[in-house]
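Good morning C.,

I know you're traveling, so I'll keep this short. The sequence:
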Amino acid sequence: MKVINYKGGSKIKSYLFITDLDDTFLNMKAMVSDEIRERINHMIHEGLQFSFITARDWNSAYKIVKGIEINLPVAVFNGAAVVDFQSHKILEGYYIPIESFWEIVNIANEHQLKVNFNYKNNDRVQKGSKIILEKAKKNKIRDVFSCSIVSNEEEVLNIHKKILEKKLLGVKINLYNDPNNKMIKILDIVSLYSSKGVAIERIKKICQYTDDTTVIAFGNGENDVEMLKEADIGVGVGNIPNSLSKYADIYLEYNGGTSILEFLEKYFYERRD
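The tokens, ready to paste straight into the viewer:
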């Protein structure tokens, strides 16, 4: 096995690398292999500034990348929450207006559909439950990062139409196909003011990066447009949509999660047999 050595002094510290997770950094099983974890940790020890921004919730993202020794903030819910990876503490948050959240809950209840939601609780991301939702008004839960409704296509599209008719304030609504089941659709709602691009700005500010820092971002989907647009160098991974290609300066094949690592090793590290 080849040993990877960092090429030169402080050069790597002038770059900030930020990646999407699914179909970009993760493998086809939506995991990080032990080998990838070991190799990326080696580069972090040598000064690699590495973070991620994902549509996933905090618990899901952390479970997958746990063991990677990230020492920077990361962002979840498509940028709605910026979280310290080591302490799990929320550093920045963009919340759904609480009136809009309850409108969504009421619409879902009319169709007997469950609302999944995540909120701020004692500076940590807390996953909601039916019991918490029933007590939410009494407990005055206000800081909701995201909510979603998962069901068959007909039901989700119907809910989507009714939410649009309400003209809710301060929300951004996204429709996704469930990657594991083509018969299932996901309706995801976050703050209108959150995005992966905004998350890059917040991470840079929190970490006090200067204008001399070059941000290189990796993404593959529609929700990565703002991230690549905000980055100094955008890297498209895999078969990217046209909306993203205009912001991609570099293209990488999706090799089951290895292409980003190979890119870093090729251009920022030298190999020694």
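Safe travels,
E.
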